[in-house]
Specification:
heterodimer, A: 447 residues, alpha+beta, Alpha-Beta Plaits, 2 domains, 26% strand, globular, B: 117 residues, four-stranded antiparallel beta sheet, two-stranded antiparallel sheet, 15% helix
Chain lengths: 447, 117
């Protein structure tokens, strides 16, 4: 027996049509959506206080579900998704209504809650992993603390008959592993199989990053039809070895190289990749190209899980003000350098209080900064980008106001747009800590 | 002969907090020993010329031809605080391909990106 698991999204902003295609033509048993980044929960908390129209779950929930539900209902494909963000129950209720409208009254939806532990974090956590400082130093500024839960509550929901499970914060690979533990009834002490299942989740969780996305390098790594990438599908056997494919007729590429790039993506020690469910050892992996756009990955190893959940803590961390302007034609770079000097002097005049200021010349060294090689020739056009991180919004607003001054008080031929978007954004800093697993329990609510 | 790493290996970078991991994968298993011997953590840290503020740790997976460089303090204080336009460090992986390595002439024909020279 094998099961087929598809990736429906690799992040919140991901394309919807490849998910629809996999749902329609991928013969899927499970379809999993990953839509959360490190700051998603805290950003959603801040937004929900300011925006009454925000529901607290994936803003594309309706788009994604409308695209895949008819196919999933027809084929009996179960959906596991972390689109619940800070309101998994609201998201589940929304999906319940969509199912009813499609006549799928017998489909069962489950919401997994319990990952948010903001009120308890000072009692449960001790130190900030990144700095070693005590957690109490963050007390006033904490927006949200949420644990990366494992498979427990999702598997419970599936065993109780849920067809669609919508979670808040869960470790990304656990969304996928829960499908395998449910389908194959793997014991939680079978670390080899759990590790293989987690590795499958890791390879699928970023969507097209396994199938030619984030990969093309013209002339070095070419990819067919990179405008038409298919999302990956894993066909998993009962031992947790998997063959990766995508829907026929899609663009993209799935080979040893795309698999290797994604296997080590956001991994530190490849022999000890820690998830809530198991510790994965990728170093024993065997990767074989077994057909066109078809790769088999086997022999991944596992070790027992740790006693802790990782907790992500979002804190208020000031504001970033940012704006830019442009030069083109002869002398563009010299003008940009003088513009930086003008802005630097203006920031003194208006007494900008900033934690950090950055002035980039786009087209020269804006991205790699000090690691940029000496330019081979003068750029014909450049952008000048000014950014400052400040403790208060009023200070951060000064950045845009001083860039405004460059329009008529600046240098010859300054290209400067009238601002069309907010030029200040709130910074939500992210710290991590560990809490004992027994202190956090996921709950399941059915709709 | 000295050639750009870009012709010998491909790379991908990812973020965790203020740490960027840059994976370097040999196109050919015969390239790997030369990459491993020359692309030391010190060489990588020097190449980034101060962009990586903390330590660089290197993990090797010999049988897959993989070197994983874990670069601490590389993302301007963390993705959300980072004032760099590339706040996730997605482009970190391309800079490493600009490093030159010495490989035996008989391997040149297997390089990516067109004929040698």
């Amino acid at each position: 027996m094998t099961i087929r698991i598809g990736s429906g999204s690799g992040w919140w902003g991901d394309r919807v049509t490849p998910a629809e295609l996999s749902a329609r033509e991928g013969a899927l048993d499970f379809l999993c959506f990953e839509t959360m980044a490190e700051a998603t929960v805290s950003t959603a908390q801040v937004r929900s206080r300011q925006d009454d129209t925000f529901h607290g779950y994936d803003t594309y929930l309706e788009d994604r579900m409308a695209a895949v539900l008819p196919h999933c209902i027809r084929q009996g494909t179960k959906i596991i998704s972390n689109q619940g963000w800070i309101n998994p129950e609201g998201a589940a209720r929304k999906v319940r209504n969509m199912l009813d409208a499609l006549g799928a009254h017998d489909w069962k939806v489950a919401a997994v809650t319990g990952s948010v532990i903001t009120p308890d974090i000072q009692r449960l956590g001790t130190t900030i992993l990144e700095t070693g400082q005590p957690l109490s130093s963050l007390d006033q500024s904490i927006i949200s603390a949420e644990a990366y839960l494992g498979i427990g509550a999702i598997v419970e929901a599936l065993r109780n008959g849920a067809d669609i499970v919508i979670t808040g914060r869960v470790a990304d690979p656990s969304l996928f592993l829960s499908a395998m533990v449910y389908a194959f009834d793997w014991p939680l002490e079978d670390y080899t199989r759990l590790a293989r299942g987690s590795a499958i989740g890791h390879l699928l969780e970023c969507g097209a990053q396994l199938t030619g996305g984030y990969f093309v390098d013209p002339g070095f790594k070419d990819v067919p039809e990179p405008w038409n990438l298919g999302f990956p599908i894993a066909e998993v056997d009962a031992d947790g070895n998997a063959t990766y494919t995508k829907v026929d007729g899609t663009g993209g590429l799935l080979n040893r190289e795309t698999v290797l790039e994604q296997m080590f993506y956001e991994i530190h020690d490849p022999a000890n990749y820690i998830t809530p469910d198991v510790v994965v050892d990728f170093t024993t992996a065997i990767i074989e190209e077994v057909g066109r756009d078809t790769v088999r990955v086997s022999n991944i190893s596992g070790k027992p899980p740790t006693a802790s959940y990782k907790v992500s803590i979002g804190v208020h961390d000031g504001f970033i003000g940012e704006d830019m302007f442009f030069y083109a034609g002869p002398g563009a770079r010299q003008k940009a350098n003088l513009a930086k000097k003008i802005i630097e002097e203006r920031f003194k005049v208006v007494d900008l209080k900033a934690e950090e200021v950055r002035m980039d010349v786009l087209g020269v060294d804006a991205i790699h900064g000090v690691a940029t090689p000496e330019p081979q020739c003068e750029p014909y056009e450049v952008g000048v980008r000014i950014a400052a991180r400040c403790l208060s919004k009023s200070e951060a607003l000064k950045v845009g106001r001083e860039v405004d001054g460059m329009a008529v008080s600046g240098i010859a031929s300054t290209g400067k747009r009238v601002p069309f978007q907010e030029r200040v954004r709130e910074v939500i800093g992210i710290w991590s800590t560990l809490v004992p697993k027994e202190a956090v329990v996921g709950q399941v609510i059915y709709f | 002969m000295n050639v750009l790493l870009r012709r010998l290996a491909h790379s991908r970078s990812g973020d965790k907090g203020n740490t960027s991991n840059i994976t370097v994968i040999a196109y050919d298993s015969d390239f790997y020993p030369y990459i491993r011997d020359q692309l030391t953590p010190e060489r990588v840290k020097t190449h980034y010329n101060g962009l990586i503020k903390g330590d660089v740790h290197r993990y090797l997976v010999d049988h897959l031809g993989v070197l994983n460089f874990v670069c601490e303090g590389a993302l301007g204080g963390g993705v959300s605080r980072n004032l760099c336009l590339d706040n996730y460090g997605k482009t970190m992986a391309s800079a490493i391909l600009n490093i030159e390595l010495d490989i035996p002439d008989d391997l040149l024909v297997r390089m990516r990106g067109g004929p040698p020279g």
